[in-house]
Structure formats: C-alpha cells, structure tokens
Design brief:
This protein is mainly alpha-helical and 174 residues long. It is 43% helix and 9% strand. The chain contains six helices and three strands, in the order E-H-E-H-E-H-H-H-H. It has helices at 16-23, 46-54, 94-107, 119-132, 139-152, 158-172; strands at 3-7, 29-34, 64-68. Helix 1 (16-23) links the parallel strand 1 and strand 2 (29-34). The relative contact order is 0.10.
C-alpha cells in the first residue's frame, strides 16, 4: 500500500536529516521507527531527535512519521538531583533541565501507555496464550506456575506471560 518502515538506532540519529532528505520526495509514506528508545542523562543524541521531530527551519514532510517504543515514560532518565534545590545542584535554572528532558516525549504527540495488568488480567492472558499455543496442563497448575514465574521474572505483564508460555513450550520441545 505504499508504506515503508525504516528502523533507526540511537547511534544513527545524527543521520536523521540525511535520511529524511532522501525519502521526503518519494511517492511512498514512511515510518521512521525506533525500538526501545531511552537515554541516560549523559547521552545527548536525543537533542538530534528533538530537532528532527519539530522540523527545524524546514516544514516537516507529510509522508514521514516518527514512531518509537520505550519502557520509560519520559525517555530521558531523570534523577532526584534534577529536582533538588539550587544549593545541591550547580545549575541555576533546574526547572529548565527538567523541562528539556520532558520535552522529547511531548514532541511525539501521541503516547500510548500500557500499565501492568491486574492479577486477574494476568491469569486471563496466561490462559489465552496457553490455549493459543496448545499448552496441555491443568489450569490450576498452569496458574500456580505462572504466578511463580512472574514473581521471579519481572512482575505482572503481557511480556512476562508470553515468556512463561515460551518457557513451557521450550520444556515440551527441547
């Protein structure tokens, strides 16, 4: 349907303007995709990304969207020292630092947040995945094992449920 996806990694952000220049006049629509995007406070690559998303002096091309996934809500790591009193921080305008770090996520426009499922929802996910993958195990045992798994593998999430089912399938077919 004329849609193309280009995956870009953090170390390639400095080339984003070049990539956009090469694709902006093509007869396709493009998604520039970044997976698991986050930055530590010492990383400055996010500044390239902020400038590109806003479009700079040039109008943003209508055939290009930028999508990213992240496990962080604010993308750039924040610390308590970012919000501390001036006496404990050398910077005079600490709110500017905080706002700069928060401004990247605001440039994406739409944020879809996936919270943790409730324990009941987690069990429902496990049941559904087990059925989809034809895992044959008594339900009580399945849910007991899933509960043990989530306690030692990252807590309640769809990803944890999938990893649990993958684990069971791996034991079944080594």
């Amino acid at each position: 349907q004329g849609l193309r996806i280009i995956e870009v990694y953090k170390h390639q952000f400095k080339y984003l303007n070049d990539i956009i220049a090469q694709i902006k006049n093509r007869n396709y629509r493009f998604i520039i995709y970044m997976d698991d995007l986050s930055f530590e406070e010492f990383e400055i690559e996010y500044k390239y990304l902020k400038a590109v998303i806003e479009g700079g002096l040039e109008k943003k091309p209508e055939n290009i969207l930028i999508y990213a996934t992240s496990n962080r809500r604010h993308l750039v790591r924040e610390t308590f020292s970012d919000k501390n009193d001036v006496r404990t921080n050398e910077e005079l305008h600490t709110t500017d630092t905080v706002q700069e770090k928060l401004s990247l996520v605001a440039r994406f426009g739409v944020t879809i947040y996936f919270g943790s499922p409730t324990p009941k929802e987690f069990k429902d996910i496990v049941r559904a995945l087990a059925a989809r993958h034809h895992v044959e195990m008594p339900e009580e045992e399945l849910l007991l094992e899933a509960n043990k798994w989530e306690l030692s593998h990252g807590g309640l999430s769809g990803r944890t449920a999938q990893q649990f089912i993958d684990h069971l399938l791996g034991k079944k077919h080594p």
